[in-house]
Write a structure and sequence with these properties.
Elements lengths: L1 E3 L4 H10 E8 L7 E3 L1 H10 L4 E4 L5 E6 L2 E7 L1
Antiparallel strand pairs: 1-4, 2-3, 2-6, 4-5, 5-6
Length: 76
């Protein structure tokens, strides 16, 4: 796992272009994956100061908003 800095704008832009599949997991849905549009994950990353973007070991990305809400992003 590697956290991607918010200042890495080129790298984030490249991920935004590639990541077209997004699943939200939250306590509200008992952490079951819910398919959502990636724009919601990117909006939350921008809106929440403590949110972080991480490249996971298996090649997908995670936007962790807090302990009870995160988004998993994948390529098609």
């Amino acid at each position: 796992m590697r956290t991607i800095s918010r200042a890495a704008t080129r790298q984030i832009a490249a991920i935004r272009e590639r990541a077209v599949i997004c699943q939200m997991r939250s306590i509200r849905h008992n952490f079951a994956p819910v398919d959502v549009e990636p724009q919601f994950a990117w909006r939350d990353l921008a809106d929440y100061h403590d949110a972080r973007l991480t490249e996971m070991a298996d090649g997908h990305w995670r936007i962790q908003i807090h302990g009870n809400l995160w988004y998993d992003l994948r390529t098609a």
